[in-house]
Amino acid sequence: MPRHIRKGDTVVVTAGNFKGAVGEVLAIDGDAGTCTVKGVNVRAKRLRPNANRPRGTTVQVEYPIHMSNVSPAVDGKPSRVRFESRPDGSKVRIAVRGGKVLHTLRGPRG
Predict the structure, then answer these.
(1) Cβ neighbour number for residue 33 with a 10 Å cutoff
(2) Model's pTM, two decimal places?
(3) Long-range contacts of range 77-86, CB-CB < 8 Å, 24 or more positions apart?
(4) Local confidence band at 90 (pLDDT 50, 70, 90 cut-offs)
(5) Cβ distance 25 to 11 under 8 Å?
C-alpha cells in the first residue's frame, strides 16, 4: 500500500505531544509504521564512556513517531493525500487541500 508521506516531505504533526509542529521527514520505517521528523520528538540520549569519550556524553536525538500522526503540509496546513494515475502512465500524489501535486511516484511506462 502506498504511503501518504515520503522522505524529504514537509509534514505537520496532527496528534500527540508535538501537535502543530512542522518539520521535514528524515527517515521512514515501513515495517514499524513510523517516521522520524526533524526537530520533533527530540530526546536526550546518554552515551556510555569509551576510549574516545572517557567521560561519556549526552546527545540530542530525534526519535520516531507513528505515521498516522503526521500529514503533508500544504501552505502550512495539514492535508490528506490522493493518488492518481495520469494518462501517460505516471502515478502522482496529490494534496486534497488545493490539489497541488506533491510528488510523482513513477514515470510513464514504456
Answers:
(1) 12
(2) 0.81
(3) 77/12, 78/11, 78/12, 78/14, 80/4, 81/4, 81/5, 83/2
(4) confident
(5) yes
What region, left, alpha or beta, does residue 67 occupy, with left being phi > 0 and alpha being psi -120 to 50 degrees?
A: alpha
The end-to-end CA distance of the chain, in Å, is 23
Distance between CA atoms of residues 86 and 108, nearest Å: 9
Q: In this predicted model, what pLDDT tens digit does every residue of 56-77 receive, in sequence order? A: 999 999 999 999 999 999 988 9
Q: In what order do the strands lie in the sheet with 81-85?
A: 81-85, 91-95, 101-106
Q: Where does the chain show beta strands of DSSP type E?
A: 10-13, 22-29, 34-37, 42-47, 57-62, 65-66, 70-74, 77-78, 81-85, 91-95, 101-106
Residue from 59, 27, 67, 29 nearest 42 by CA: 59
The pLDDT tens digits for 16-68 are 999 999 999 999 998 999 999 999 999 999 999 999 999 999 999 999 999 99
Residue 12, Cβ neighbours under 10 Å: how many? 21
